[in-house]
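User: Here's a protein and a ligand (fe (ii) ion). What would the complex look like?
Assistant: Let me lay out the input and then the predicted complex.
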Amino acid sequence: MIHPPNLSPGYRSTLLRAPSKPAVAFKADPDAIELTSPVFGHGEVGALDADLTRQHAGEPIGERIIVTGRILDDSGHPIRNTLVEVWQANAAGRYAHEGDRHPAPLDPNFTGAGRCLTDGEGRYRFVTIKPGAYPWRNHPNAWRPAHIHFSVFGTAFTQRLVTQMYFPGDPLFPFDPIMQSVPDPVVRERLVAAFDLDVTEPEWALGYRFDVVLGRTPMED
Amino acid sequence: MLTPSQTVGPFFGHALPYEGGPDLVPDGYPGAITVTGRVLDGAGEPVPDAMLELWTGEAGTRGVLRRGGEGACGFGRCATAPDGTYRFRTAPPAGPYLALLVFARGLLCAVATRIYLQDGPDPLLDSLEPERRATLIAQRDGGVYRFDVRLQGEGETVFLEF
Ligand SMILES: [Fe+2]
């Protein structure tokens, strides 16, 4: 089992939102529209959209990092020209979102949202700052490990994936019901980026590598 | 080596919704229809922090992220309002249905369904019990199609696994 079960009682919000019936397994015909996907034009994404440290007049506070990787299908083929969107808290663990009540400072120089299209090898690259851990009200003394949210499109609508990238060695992993909702510990590790000295730029920013592998399209079964 | 899914969480509103996202076609587009409804949880309460994505199956000529121009785009994105409502404006699809994905805090994996604009013989619909079949069929009122998503419980929407 790869994906978390939608009913994961440790994550309280699932209790009233997880469907109670299993998804209907449906063998899509070749004309099913879910086997196709929107196509993104390079003119739709701005050159600075992938640099979350340059979206304001000043530089955000925090540890500058580079996050890069490839979007692949499960045969290892790159998914080219596809949209990758990221969003995250600032270095203090606060989102630039009106619903975030965590009493940590907002950073006027950090919105925490970025997007880019993958290149011919399925590669994406973001420059950002390392997000902080933040508390939530799921259970007493609940804290989310630092993470970057990822949204990825494949070549079929069925491959659409939203996930979260974590940072290696975070002591909060065992206490986080969202990360722990992935039942298989080996699969869970795939959500953890790898520190990479080759991605790291001297005197500038630490580098992390995070590949995303999307499911096969039903036609491949 | 598939990457597992994680919830979209509550704090995507400053990042994922974009201007014109719910409008697959410009205002006044000939034959445009509105698809609207509410997302409800297992207690029948509205879900104010869901995000829906609509796909007609045709890429079209209008930008996905940068709207503008007179053409149609096949993709739309809409966050729910505090009362759980969403609303898309689209060209009618070539076939009988639209594809819909629902993301929300509390959903560890997005759920996929179809909005059928009318009932009729169909391999998927015909495989379902009558009361479950009904959850996939929009209620039409002129150019407005109403389609509620019930995540859990009574009248639970049929979700699909391909
Ligand atoms: Fe988060």
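Summary: The longest strand of chain A covers residues 64-73.
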